[in-house]
UniProtKB/TrEMBL annotation:
The keyword Translocase belongs to this UniProt entry's keyword annotation: no
Domain BFD-like [2Fe-2S]-binding residues, every copy: 401-455
Keywords, comma-separated and alphabetical: Oxidoreductase
Annotated protein name in UniProt: FAD/NAD(P)-binding oxidoreductase
Pfam families: DAO (PF01266), Fer2_BFD (PF04324)
Alphabetical list of InterPro entries matching this protein: BFD-like_2Fe2S-bd_dom (IPR007419), BFD-like_2Fe2S-bd_dom_sf (IPR041854), FAD-dep_OxRdtase (IPR006076), FAD/NAD-bd_sf (IPR036188), G3P_Oxidase/Oxidoreductase (IPR052745)
Gene3D superfamilies registered for this protein in UniProt: BFD-like [2Fe-2S]-binding domain (1.10.10.1100), D-Amino Acid Oxidase, subunit A, domain 2 (3.30.9.10), FAD/NAD(P)-binding domain (3.50.50.60)
PANTHER family, per database record: GLYCEROL 3-PHOSPHATE OXIDASE, GLYCEROL-3-PHOSPHATE DEHYDROGENASE
Top-rank taxon, per record: Bacteria
Domain spans labelled FAD dependent oxidoreductase: 6-355
Organism: Siculibacillus lacustris
Gene Ontology MF, one: oxidoreductase activity
């Protein structure tokens, strides 16, 4: 565990990992602290996965600037970092003249924000593009630069690259205190010891206000706003070609129907204020709300093909992101209140935070050894039969399919565990390689993934966790032997 750093980043979501990766370009000691066993366990694991084009943010805000810049950065860097991204465009679907007027004003706003390619489509063009869409549509706003991305692999991709360039990521390391002297941050207290730090970046998601208060900064509060989702299996992929938004409301972009980057379809999210910072339950009324909302866009939803539901929490803190030095504590820099489009903006937030730190006196000397990409790890299913045979010949584990729904091999799982910023939990494996993300949701491969994790991490299966610090799935019963061998 590090005892000293130039910059400590608190929070291993997409924002914290993107900041750590950006800072790893420079000759700096950068340490990221995450309280959970893995990165991408907060809001970054449960969102719509859309790289927004940037037409709905109020011009002049952080959101508007960082959304457009972030989307452009992903287009440049996603492939090299191993972040799946598909540029499928988005449509804001209008059902009435009033909706069309909203689309016109979004188009004007998007042009002001510098979004390229925006167009208003009539109903016929919309129906030709989206055959499953409701019969009563009046037209749409088309944004060709919108894309879908894997939010887990975005976070992991930034985190892995930060580590490859010298940053350290400590998981299971909760920040419990911020130490100040003369109004300046000097150290961070954690569950694993103290780290002296010149600068601290607060990227703690819905917990960012609590983290700020550890230093006596009560300049903002965060109100969690939950969004629930239903995910369908890949047989439904033809329901939507592009991201289908309704015309937006004041509090959210509304309930959408969208492809994921992996070819599934999801519907959601709704927007419900909740009291607890960890309330990610799905509810019957919430699911009813998203089903009826989504049916306004695509009436025939194959609900029998739903494979899971989940929810994420928006870190609602006001109209714009809170980015900049704390007004109370010098050296403490917030990347807080990062609601949507936070996933899209993340790499641009990294750039903005680096600039702010430089203005505050941090010397940014480029590190000539910086490598901007991660090693390419081809998916077994995307290889040709000849390549697959060669891979199996070189590594027999490539010939063992562990997840049957998604055809994920043991070799891919092992690589995901052994990589920098590697998986430490069953969900960590699922989010990196999709073992357990298919139709059976881990019913078949879950015990096998558990055994592989136990073997690779050198721990008993009773110590393997699903996701959170205390999410063990197995316990030893007196008189029963636990078999660690998945072939048994
Ligand atoms: C329903 C919904 C839909 C969304 N859809 C989109 C979308 O389509 N496109 C888009 O661009 N954005 C979207 N967003 C927004 C996007 O998901 C967030 O802006 C982004 O994930 C925020 O990332 P983060 O790193 O700030 O927070 P998080 O991912 O929550 O990470 C914060 C991390 O800090 C850690 N932490 C907290 N306290 C401590 C502590 N004391 N010590 C150590 N670690 C700590 C947490 O464990 C957590 O891992 C959506 C959000 C929601 C809720």
């Amino acid at each position: 565990m590090s005892s000293k750093a130039d910059v400590v980043v608190i929070g291993g979501g997409v924002v914290g990992c993107a900041i750590a990766r950006e800072l790893s370009r420079y000759r700096l000691d950068v340490v990221l602290l995450e309280q959970a066993p893995d990165v991408a366990t907060g809001t970054s694991k449960a969102n719509s996965g859309i790289l927004h084009a940037g037409f709905d943010c109020e011009p002049g805000t952080w959101k508007a600037r960082l959304n457009v810049r972030g989307a452009a950065l992903y287009a440049e860097i996603a492939e090299g970092l191993g972040i799946p991204r598909r540029e499928i465009g988005s449509l804001v679907v209008a059902h009435s003249d009033a909706d069309l007027a909203t689309c016109e004003s979004l188009l004007a706003r998007g042009r002001e924000n510098g979004v390229a390619g925006l167009e208003i489509w009539g109903a016929d063009r919309l129906r030709a593009h989206e055959p499953s869409i409701s019969a009563d549509v009046a037209g749409a706003l088309w944004a060709p630069t919108a894309a879908v991305v894997c939010p887990f692999l975005a976070t992991v991709g930034f985190g892995e690259n930060a580590i490859r360039n010298g940053a350290k990521i400590h998981t299971e390391c909760g920040v419990t205190g911020l130490v100040t002297a003369g109004g300046r941050i000097v150290a961070v207290e954690t569950t694993r010891g103290r780290i002296e730090a010149r600068f601290v970046v607060n990227a703690a998601g819905v917990h960012a206000a609590d983290v700020a208060r550890l230093a006596g900064d009560d300049s903002f509060t965060i109100h969690p706003r939950r969004g629930e989702y239903i995910l369908f299996d890949r047989s439904t992929g033809a329901l939507a070609r592009s991201v289908l938004f309704p015309t937006p409301s004041k509090v959210s972009k509304g309930i959408l129907v969208s492809p994921t980057v992996h070819g599934n379809i999801f519907i959601g999210p709704n927007a419900a204020d909740v009291d607890e910072l960890d309330d990610v339950e799905t509810t019957a009324p919430g699911l009813d709300e998203i089903i009826s909302g989504a049916r306004k866009i695509v009436p025939d939803l194959p609900l029998q093909n739903a494979i899971t539901e989940f929810a994420g929490l928006r870190a609602a803190a006001g109209k714009d992101f809170i980015i900049g030095e704390s007004p109370i504590v010098k050296g403490l820099v917030h990347a807080a209140g990062i609601q949507s489009p936070g996933l899209t903006s993340a790499p641009a937030i990294g750039e903005a935070i680096a600039e702010i730190l430089a203005d505050l006196g941090l010397k940014l000397t480029p590190d000539p050894t910086f490598v901007p990409v991660n090693p390419h790890r081809p998916k077994f299913t995307e290889q040709t039969p000849v390549e697959q045979m060669a891979r199996i010949a070189a590594d027999p584990l490539a010939g063992r399919v562990i997840c049957r729904c998604e055809t994920i091999t043991e070799a891919e799982i092992v690589a995901a565990i052994r990589a920098p910023c590697g998986a430490r939990t069953i969900d960590g494996v699922k989010r990196r390689v999709r073992a357990g993300a298919g139709r059976c949701q881990g019913g078949f491969c879950g015990p096998r993934v558990t055994a592989i994790l136990a073997r690779e991490l050198g721990i008993p299966v009773t110590a393997v966790r699903k996701e959170t610090l205390e999410s063990w799935l197995f316990y030893a019963r007196a008189g029963l032997e636990i078999r660690e061998d998945i072939d048994a």
